[in-house]
Structure prediction request, 780 residues.
Amino acid sequence: MSYFGPGHGACPGCGLTIATRNVLEALEGKCFVANSTGCLEIVSSQYGRSAWGVPYIHSLFENTGAVAAGIDLALKALKRKDEGKVIVLAGDGATADIGIGPLSGMFDRNHDVIYICLDNEAYQNTGNQQSGLTPPGSNTTTTPVGELLPGKVGRKKDMVSIAVAHGVAYVATASVAFHADIRRKVRKAAEIEGAKYIQIHTPCVTGWGIDGKQTILSARLAYETALYPIIEYENGELTRVRKIKERKPVEEYLKIQRRFRHLFKHPRGKEIISMLQKIADENAAKFNLDV
Amino acid sequence: MKKVVRGFYSIAYSVKLCRPDVIAAYPITPQTEIVENLAKMYADGELGNCEYVTAESEFGAASILVGASATGARTFTATCSQGLILMSEVLINAAGMRLPIVLVNTNRALSAPLSIWNDHQDSMILRDAGLMQIYVETNQEAHDMVPVAFKVAENPKVMLPFMINMDGYKLTHAYEPIDLLDQEVVDSFLPPYDPPVYMTTKNPLTFGCYAPPNYYAEFRVVLQNAMERAEKELEKAYKEWAEITGRDWGGHVVTEGVEDAELIAIAMGSLTGMVRNVVSELRNQGKKVGLLKIRTFRPFPAKEIKEILKDVEKILVFERAVSFGYEGPVGMEVKSACFGLTPEFYSFAVGLGGRDVPGEEVMKIINEVYDGKVKQGFHFGTVKPFEEVVV
Amino acid sequence: MVMKITLGGVSKPHSSKTMKTGDWGTEYPVVDEEKCTACKTCEYLCPDACIVVVEKEDGKKVAVPDYDYCKGCGVCFSVCPAGAIKMELKEIYKLEVC
Prediction:
């Protein structure tokens, strides 16, 4: 299986590339990739050093939903739909912030596109600036920890609900902690006509301050604490969740990452940790995650 | 087949005859009726296999065409003004990616203050974008230039986006008898799009690379080379068009009465007609004035223009834009083309934000320049007396 | 060799293979072939597509790292359900710096 890499320039232990490889594997390489500017693009598309084994296009940071829509339209017009599925691989900033307009347009027109958001929870390509998908308490370079502020103050944007509200037929979250689940969800999405949204939690070694040996562990802890619920919506209905056997306190997840380490000594740290625990508890209740 | 139609329709009908694969657009005054016409043709099943979509913005429309064009589709959009500059990031990107997207820009002023009326400030801002740009004088010329645009944009020696500029309202809303082209004529001139490279799973290429400093400069040289080749290929296409249709719109530039002229007036777009009338009247009065109409703005036909202007005493540019902090952009280009010559140079920004440019104003400006009553350099046309205040 | 500038910067697939990233890391994975169950967990989770389960001459299937590209991140080590992978420090990093 080699639809992506080796020889790309991602950091050792990068979560994005794990997700990307499993997405392409699920489609057996029969796909067109539209990729927004960001980590994945920059590590894979240097001139003459492409890591891609599938047709790939990068245009801009914020237009990938529309570029994918254009590929879909062209394949229809040219009667080449049988060549493969159109997928977007976009970061969380490209998805939830700068590119949300074209994404909304693509959803609204219901193009036959699988939009995959690779969520590493900040603008990691440019060195860990906060995005709409950065969780509260995260220490980023634009929400730095200071005397007053304990990192990001504010919520993680609920892209899943935004996608569901658009009437997107298949909406799911996934995590690199569960590689087979990524492949299953992508294959399932590929069978559904119209727009699909899958958000994959992809740890970032540099931005999160973890070691490559903790990439999968940290993704798993996000799930086990219910901070990153693994869920599926079909036609607006919650149809499947990954149950958690013994839900762990959020501290287990926070303590292994440099971006949250300040929470254990900052004057407002307890407040943020209890806020995160509340989010986890609400997730567990909303999605009925506890076994 | 001659029909009285609006400018909008003259474009839409011609686009249909070019057999596009994907049209994406967003409504904006005074462009909307072009895409409304196309939408109706699509709804009536007249566009063949073409996919037509209304995007969520002009930015989205242009981006959709980037994806479609890279996949091998013939693509079209229309826009203007705020829409064009919203598209600008995408169009600059498309030029670098060498995607032959064709667009019609129905020239309109830029905000602020908001103005929906005509001038050329929108397209001039895209001067450096890597798009080919031509300006048409009439709706028949607009109608005829759509197949030419596709032909040159998709020419393997060129492969660049192409923007046809037609004046908003002045042309778009005007009813004129148009000799609508026959499908066979367009088919004989414009072959189906055969992209040299395109996205396919059969040969999975990577589009839209990033280039480190050891490559980037060469890509920009290549873009400049493509523009230089475009100058020749466009000239050839203009000629071929004249031969096939019998309608000769001229080359990159058109001149009238320049051979003995002491003053040459320069204009682009729909204003040219008025300037032509005034020049003709003045020539009848025995004044040695001539007209230079610039059709192709990018690639800029600098050598041709210099050759025409080499012996003239006075150059007078009428234009519809200002590069704030310097002068009018067309005047700047003409002056630059004339480097080494020593004529007197005058340029006038007229008709900004849709202000009417009556024949009397054109007559007055030409006469005053001809008679040496105006200082050399950049001027605004008729402006009312005003006082600058805060509130 | 004269530089080639393609139309619009189009690149050929898998041309990143010329970039050997095997010298990036300080550590490298070593697979204990006895313990390896060829479950492919490491293969699916390697960020660099450089550990693959292959069939050896004796018919046994084992995970084999490609040291030309392995960045030594340790993902394979951390996920191996059989504990068959250990990370070792490259010789050069064992040198004492005076």
User: Anything to note?
Assistant: Chain A has eleven helices and eight strands.
